[in-house]
Structures are given as C-alpha cells and as structure tokens.
Amino acid sequence: MKFSKFFSLASVVAMSFMVSGCLAGKFMANYALKPEPHGVADIERTRHKADSLLPGSTQWYDTLKDQDILKDTTIVGYRDFKVHACYVPAKDPANAEGTAIVVHGYGDNHFVFLYLVRMYRDELNYNVLFPDLQYHGYSEGDHIQMGWNDRLDLLKWIEVAHNVFNDKFMVLHGVSMGGATVMMTSGEELPEYVRAIVDDCGYSSAWDQFAHNLKDSFHLPPFPVLNSASIVCKNRYGWTFKEASSVNQLAKCQLPMLFIHGDADDFVPTSHVYKNYEAKVNGYKEIWIVPGAVHANSYAKAPEEYTQRVRDFLARAKTL
Q1: Which of 68, 146, 171, 222 is the most buried (most CB within 10 A)?
Q2: Measuring CA to CA, how many Å separate 259 from each of 5, 96, 133, 182?
Q3: In terms of pLDDT, which residue wins out, 49 or 218?
Q4: What pLDDT is attached to residue 22?
C-alpha cells in the first residue's frame, strides 16, 4: 500500500516535472529563435554597432551606396522567404583576387561586420557579397535558423556571387552564428570555385551553444528544457538543435579552413573551436587562438594581425 502511494506520488511529480519542462521548452524556443526586436526594426542599433567595431564604417557604406558602387539584391531563399544581400566590387576590380562572402552573427545583419567587408575589399582587393540571414536585416523569415537552414540560402548566394563577379576563387567567412553557417555549409557539395573557408568563433552545434546559454544564464541543465525546445523547433520548423551541427558537417569538408577564436570568449567558449578543428579530418587547416579576445572581438583586438593571417591563409589556399 505504501509502495503504491509512493509510486503514485512519484508519477505525479514526474508528470509535473515533464509538463513544466515542456512549457519551459516552448518559452526557450521562442526566446532563442524569435527574439524582438529584429530585422529592419533593429537596423539603427546595428549601424551604430558597425561604427563601434570600426569607426567610419557606415559612412564608407553610405558613400559607396550613393555612388552606386555598392548594390542591393534580393532572391527567394529557403521555404520561399525573400532574402537580401549587398555586394560590392573590389577596390581595384580589374585585378580582383577573388570573391568573399561575409556572413554575420546571431541578432545582427549585413551592417555589423562591415569591418570584414572593408578588409576584403580595401585591404585584400576582393569582391564581396554580404547577406542578411533569415529573420535578420532586410530578409524575411519566421525564426532564427542558427546556421542550419541558413546554409541552404548560402548555397544560393554562392551562385549569385559567382554570377555577378565570375571569379575562380571564392572564400566563405563567417563570425559567430555566421561562422557556424559557413562550417555547416562546408559539408555540402560546393562548386569548384569555392576554395576556402574562415570560421571566426562559430559554435560546434546549436545544441552545445544553447546548453551553454542555459547553464550560464539560467543555471539549468539541458534536460528537460533543451530537449523540449528542440522538439518544439522540430515540430514548427523541421530541424533539431543536435541536427544543426558544425562538427558533423566539418567531418565531410575537404576545403582549406582557418579557425579563429578568442581565448577569453565566454559566450561561445573556446572549447568549441577545438572541437570544430578536430572534427575536420580532411584537407588543410589552420587555427589561431587570439589572446585576450572576447566573443567576436578578434579583429578589434588585433586588426593588423587578423588581416595578415587571413591574407596568408588565402594565399596558401590558392596553391592547394
């Protein structure tokens, strides 16, 4: 009798635990994948952020835009959402070194990483295309895809950039979620002109990143909240947090890759880059751990060395 009562109580407690976990999972899915404000409503904040990362960035952007050198384009992306990008030719177009696609991070847009666009165009003499991922900037979308389905849009942008610039050498360069996006793209079948990839502080998987955020911000373990949120994501959008894996995609990648990460990064812990680096078992790879750099801060911490390391890596990739 006592055992029966204990079993009934345990069942009630377990059920309550699971129900609360499901509710918390729904909250987390909305909190993580549908933040507000976003997109166009957040453009002004990110214009300011671009200038804080490299002074004069938005003036540089606006000047090229007014001169009709920097242009906008829109295509139909994954799940028929319209997605936006900007593109700009190299500083010396006749002698362009190739094309770079620069991919922004979580909650940002094409403005934020203008420092990389300027680096590639003005310092390295590359043509550059820089998109807004879904649910960011001027792109449509119903949630943040954490790089996973963004890789499918990036495959389309690769073709667009090639049609515009017709180069034989292309590099994909992403920061934070953009880094995860280019790594997740690296495992796909890519055109032969895509020759190199640069990951700057990307995470190993959406699951690993959210697990860290849960622990760091809410002091919670992954189970049951993260499990529930992943199920919600699967039911709503068709993908899971574990499926969105840089590590799994890197295992299929044979392209030259440069991995960059700050040793003071506590948002995407530095442990992620070692996991990503080890997962890439085929082809040439380099890793640079930037002393004292926090999340997405490596360029700001050492702009000259950052530029030189990217320049040297691309020169090496062209010989492979």
Answers
A1: 171
A2: 57, 24, 21, 11
A3: 49
A4: 62
